Amino acid sequence: MTKFSFLGAIILSLGLILLTMPDLADARRMGGGGSFGSKPSYSKSYQKPAAPTSTPSQQAAPGAAPMGGRGMFGGMLGGMLMGGLLGSLFFGGAFSGIGFMDILLIGGGLFLLMRFLRSRQPAAQTAGGPSQTHDMNRGAWDNLRTAQNHTSTSTPEYPAGFDAREFLDGAKAAYTRLQAAWDARDLDDLRQFTSTEVFAEIQSQAEADPNPGKTEILFLEASLLEVKAVGNQTIATVLFDTMLREDSTSAPAEQVREAWHFSRYETGGAKHWVVEGIQQLEK
């Protein structure tokens, strides 16, 4: 192998190592994966609640296949190829007698294969995605103002007049809308539905990363963890169990579990719900 072929093979090897590494996307979802909010306790991870009774099929994590597909093929093929390249370069083994053109052909083939596998990952958002449901979400969340004299049909631990199903529908609508607003860096929209402290943190993150993003929500489930009255406020904590991509062009899907705290004033102050805290679920 000539000096230039050897140098070219090393450069190509380094390129393939970078290619098979997990993508380090700069784009992040709203909140950046941190814990913060209007109360000091929100700056810590949320203690994992007791696991609810459910069937094994309900506990299975949806979207597991898309998460593992790229890592399996990328890691396996990349490892095989890199093992052969390094063996040929330093020990004369694996792809014995391999030439520089062979390396280029193999590297190009792997690149095309990985591009093909990546392109087959589901790119379309679910029906509840931000771009298709913005108007619907606005109506659902704006209408989430259950009258206090409404006859309660919820479980006894909820305050009188609190409709849990209606609230969760509105909370899911708010989640998709706020993610879309964050992607667009629409601070005016974010300000409407966040407390002063939460908005200040989001605004700081937007200043640090002003470039629009693309959060792709593949699956979204919400469950109500707690509803309580604190003074003249009602605070509801929702666990969002989500499968999403924080950079839909390349990042693999990942499961995100966060506790969002919504609050509203029953007398005085804003009568609509706002996000007053976001906590990552304690692992």
TrEMBL record:
Sequence intervals crossing the membrane: 89-113
Region (Disordered): 36-65
Keywords attached to this entry: Membrane, Transmembrane, Transmembrane helix
Annotated Gene3D superfamilies: 3.10.450.240
Domain Tim44-like: 148-280
Bias (Low complexity): 38-49
UniProt name for this protein: Import inner membrane translocase subunit Tim44
Species name: Desulfomicrobium baculatum (strain DSM 4028 / VKM B-1378 / X)
